[in-house]
Design goal:
With about 130 residues, the chain is mostly helical. The protein has one domain (about 5-125). About 70% of the residues lie in helices and about 0% in strands.
Length: about 130
């Protein structure tokens, strides 16, 4: 996936679109995360990014970047459809890595702790 496409996905949108993305992400994140768990090598950071995106104290631009990447992640049909075994989440990983790298300093220890707890709970449920 080239940088131009990633840039298009992560570019700023209005508050209304960010709100729609937040609702979509809240509704579908955990189901998609469980499907992708073995294919995303930085799942702990991804879940921390999820908590950062939904944190009202996170700056709006940072929330927007994360919500765009997370919304792309939960879409079942994107550049490489997620149902393609072994390939399905490769484009998602590129978008997520770019977003997380761009906002890394805004992901707090509290976000990482929440992620660690959520992932531990997910493991217990399996």
């Amino acid at each position: 996936m080239d940088d131009v496409k990633i840039g298009e996905i992560l570019e700023p949108v209005g508050a209304g679109e960010n709100q729609r993305r937040a609702e979509r992400v809240r509704a579908k994140f955990w189901r998609t995360m469980k499907k992708a768990a073995r294919q995303v090598p930085f799942m702990d950071e991804l879940v921390a990014g999820y908590y950062c995106a939904l944190d009202d104290d996170t700056p709006p631009k940072v929330r927007g970047i994360l919500l765009a990447a997370l919304a792309y992640f939960i879409l079942p049909l994107d550049v490489v459809p997620d149902f393609l075994l072994g390939l399905g989440f490769t484009d998602d990983v590129a978008v997520l890595a770019a977003a997380l790298n761009a906002v890394r300093r805004h992901i707090t220890p509290a976000h990482r702790l929440a992620a660690k707890r959520a992932l531990a709970e997910t493991e217990r449920d399996r």
